[in-house]
Structures are given as C-alpha cells and as structure tokens.
Amino acid sequence: MPPELSKGTSTASSSVSLVIPSSKYEQDGPEAREIAKHMPYFPFKGIPRFYDIGGFLAKPDVFQQIVDIFAHRYNEIGIDVIAGLDARGFILGPPIALALKKPFIMMRKKGKMPNSVQSEAYQTEYGGREGMTVQRDKIKKGDRVLVIDDLVATGGTLSSAISLVHMLGGNVVECACVVELKMFIDPPTDSGLPSRKKLFESQNIGHVPVWGLVSEDVLTNEAELPENYVDDGEEH
What we know:
Helix content is 25%, strand content 28%. It is of the alpha/beta class. It has helices spanning 30-36, 54-57, 60-77, 89-100, 156-167, 196-202; strands at 9-12, 17-20, 41-44, 47-51, 81-85, 104-109, 116-118, 122-124, 127-129, 132-135, 144-152, 171-180, 210-215. The strands form four sheets. The chain has a seven-stranded mixed beta sheet with strand order 7-10-6-5-11-12-13, sandwiched between helices. It has a two-stranded antiparallel sheet with strand order 1-2. A two-stranded antiparallel sheet has the order 3-4. The two termini are 34 Å apart. 35% of the residues are buried.
C-alpha cells in the first residue's frame, strides 16, 4: 500500500486540473539516489550510457520502493487509469495500478491488439517509429490518465502516447518515468540535441507535465564489463 499521504497544492492547465504533491519524494532526492545505485549503465545500441532497469528489477526491495513512491504520488494527484508503454511500461505499470486499484491498459506497437486506434509516426533517440496503438474502449472521455514508461529522453514515445489519450477524449495527468534525461528537456540550439520542450509545444501538448524519479545527474554507476563484452543491441 502507498505510504501515508501528505498535503499538496492544486493547479490547473488548459485541459486538466491536478494536484501537485508535496516534496516527500523529489527527483534525485535521498530515495532516488539510493535507487540510482542499482541502475548501472552500459555501452549499448551505440549509446555510451544505456541505463539498465534490470538492476533494480533484480532487487525486490528496491523495486517495491519504486512502486510505493509512484503509488504515493499518484494516489495524491488522483487518476482514473494507468497506461503503460511497450514494453518496459508493462513491467512498471501493473504493480502501481494494483497498489492504487486502478485499471491498467497497454499502449503497443501496430498490429498487436484488436479494436485499436493508432497515433501518427514519431521520432525517438533511436530513429523513426510507426505510431503506437491503444484499444479504443479502454479510455473514456474525461478519464484522468497516467502514462508510464521506464525512461524519457527526447519525448517522442510519450508524445505518441499523449496523442492517443487525446484522440479518445482523455486527459493526461502526467507522464511518469523512473529515469528522466534532463539533457533533452530544452538543450541549447547549437548543441545539436533534440528538444523535448519544442517537440511538445509543436504538438500543442506543452501543458502535459513529465516527471522522472531519477536523472542522469545521479546515475553514476558504471557497469563492470567482462572482457568479452559486445554491444549487441538491436532496434526494438
């Protein structure tokens, strides 16, 4: 069960009213720093720092702590349904949904589910992707939807998920990830990095908040690689 709730403050956006929780659990706070110790990074898929959630999944007490933190935050904010993104959102979303006693729905790649609607194609840090899908009867008009994934970088996948929720008349209360790479939020123009802020604004979803428990600032656990380590990452 979620820990005891603490008092929050309310605010409103153009499409959804939400409660911003107190600072019991902050990004990169004490709990997050301890969790970060169980998320080693590897050179993988050509990326120097690929953060591996398999580290904390192998530690039941750490995984439970993450579930409790997210359950506390979203019990306080108030949601109707949790949407997990293919595929790691399928790992994180269900235990949080069970803790909150809320429905869990899947957002999947094209051709994986019947009776679905599809978003437009989108870009990620790995390249272009076909639109995501969700079953058309799983989100009702006015539903307060929490979108869950393991990591947010450029925001392309999240933008696709947000568009699906809006297509069906729902409101995205927040997009939540264990890891948020802050370097992509609004980098300098001359950096060459994509800007999540500009992407969201271009799609008229700049009002949708994104929250990550841990950022790259505290993810400093470099994996110990065996001598025969090979970067064999494939597109997914």
